[in-house]
Design goal:
Length: 148
């Protein structure tokens, strides 16, 4: 996958957002969640459960960002970004349906997550189509399977 300037920008922004939010959740969970009116108790078990996904999001953000600078990692980075952002956005939609309307900032986050995730998914589909178009018919896996 040869990343375009637009894709590199998308991956850099996606990665930066994920690293920033992940680090905030990992290192300052009470302060981060307070911005949306969520009060976390000083319960070590609760804080452990809150911090763990923050660390995961931070690391995934680094992996997204790497694809903006390392060409051979662009496909993996775009896949990770699409999966993470679409999963977060879709999960928030499930919560909206099951739990009701959250704070305005969380609704905005839902929209941003779905837009970034969709943009990454579109980039993946386009890259796969370009890759299929550039493979000669004899070497394409479907032509090999058809010959068996």
């Amino acid at each position: 996958m040869k990343p375009t300037r637009k894709l590199r920008s998308l991956l850099a922004i996606s990665g930066l957002i994920a690293v920033t939010i992940g680090a905030s959740i990992l290192f300052a969970p009470a302060q981060f969640h307070a911005t949306h009116g969520i009060e976390l108790a000083a319960d070590p078990s609760l804080l452990s459960e809150v911090r763990a996904p923050g660390g995961a999001l931070m690391v995934l953000g680094v992996l997204m960002g790497v694809g903006a600078f390392v060409r051979t990692f662009a496909f993996a980075s775009t896949s990770i970004a699409a999966a993470v952002y679409l999963a977060y956005g879709a999960s928030r939609l499930v919560s909206l349906a099951l739990d009701g309307v959250p704070a305005a900032g969380l609704l905005a986050a839902t929209s941003i997550e779905l837009v970034i995730g969709a943009a990454c998914a579109v980039a993946l589909v386009r890259a796969m189509r370009r890759a299929q178009a550039s493979v000669p018919a004899q070497a394409h896996p479907s032509s090999i399977a058809g010959a068996l």
